[in-house]
């Protein structure tokens, strides 16, 4: 009962009840309303999710299921792009689907509630600190080893082909640079998105897992070329057909 009450309290906070004072994003950029071409439609505001404690001990919040013992989070997705250039690995179906590998009906708020309840730690390490001018060297926040460890997760995929279960690391579905090299299997970082003007920004933008670092996204890629939006392409040969159902499995990083 206590964990269900905690879920409702967490959702209320992330929906801005009560609304906190506006807080500037870690990289100093103020979120703006998506412009035409950025999103096909704006994600609808999050509603209080249905919460179910399953017989196997797992908990379901909206479309998201998580395991308090293993700290794994399961997000139902569909293949959105199996060819073309990418900037995102996963977005909400109302977000920037024109540049994302996967899409999901799951609310970003519900995903973030799962992260909070499973005690993942947000890390700002990938967000450049504000600079006085363009001549000032780019610097990043220094975080403790405890924060770095607590923020790192592995992203894997599970799906079915003719009744048989398949598994792969998310990185196996993404080419880096050209079709001869795959994305590195570095852990992803839980950045946590942010509150701004009383709103949870990821819920407004639909950003869930961004290959190129953006402050609105819940998860961020921490490997090489995470600042280059022209390096990433869907690996068509490794993927099922477009619109195929897949499950994103988020797990604590194992070195």
Write the layout of secondary structure elements.
Layout: H1 2-14, E1 51-53, E2 59-61, E3 64-67, E4 72-79, E5 88-92, E6 100-104, H2 108-117, H3 145-151, E7 152-161, E8 164-169, E9 174-176, E10 188-190, E11 195-196, E12 199-200, H4 201-205, E13 207-210, E14 219-221, E15 232-234, E16 245-252
Parallel strand pairs: 5-6, 13-14
Antiparallel strand pairs: 1-2, 2-3, 3-4, 4-6, 4-16, 5-13, 7-8, 7-10, 7-16, 9-15, 10-14, 11-12
Parts with pLDDT < 50 across at least 5 consecutive residues: 11-39
Distance between the termini: 34 Å
What's the pLDDT, averaged over the residues?
85
How many DSSP-defined strands? 16
Describe, in plain words, how this protein is organized in 3D.
This protein is an alpha+beta fold. It has one domain. The protein has 4 helices and 16 strands. The protein has helices spanning 2-14, 108-117, 145-151, 201-205; strands at residues 51-53, 59-61, 64-67, 72-79, 88-92, 100-104, 152-161, 164-169, 174-176, 188-190, 195-196, 199-200, 207-210, 219-221, 232-234, 245-252. An 8-stranded mixed barrel has the order 4-6-5-13-14-10-7-16. β7 and β8 form a beta hairpin. The two termini are 34 Å apart.
């Amino acid at each position: 009962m206590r964990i269900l009450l905690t879920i409702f309290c967490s959702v209320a906070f992330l929906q801005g009840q009560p609304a906190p004072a506006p807080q500037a994003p870690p990289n100093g950029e103020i979120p703006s309303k998506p412009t035409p071409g950025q999103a096909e439609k704006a994600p609808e505001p999050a509603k209080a999710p249905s919460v179910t404690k399953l017989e196997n001990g797992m908990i379901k919040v909206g479309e998201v299921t998580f395991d308090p013992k293993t700290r794994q989070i399961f997000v139902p997705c569909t293949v959105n792009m199996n060819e073309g250039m990418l900037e995102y690995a996963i977005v909400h179906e109302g977000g920037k689907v024109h540049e994302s590998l996967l899409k999901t009906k799951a609310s970003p708020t519900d995903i973030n509630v799962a992260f909070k309840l499973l005690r993942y730690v947000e890390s700002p390490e990938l967000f450049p600190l504000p600079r006085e001018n363009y001549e000032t060297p780019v610097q990043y926040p220094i975080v403790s080893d405890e924060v770095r460890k607590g923020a790192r997760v592995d992203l894997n995929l599970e799906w079915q082909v003719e009744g048989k279960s398949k598994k792969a690391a998310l990185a196996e579905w993404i080419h880096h640079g050209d079709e001869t090299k795959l994305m590195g299997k570095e852990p992803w970082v839980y950045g946590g998105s942010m509150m701004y003007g009383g709103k949870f920004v990821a819920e407004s933008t639909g950003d869930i897992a961004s290959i190129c670092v953006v402050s609105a996204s819940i998860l961020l890629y921490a490997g090489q070329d995470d600042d280059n939006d022209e390096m990433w392409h869907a690996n068509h040969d490794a993927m099922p057909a477009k619109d195929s159902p897949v499950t994103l499995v988020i797990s604590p990083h194992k070195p």
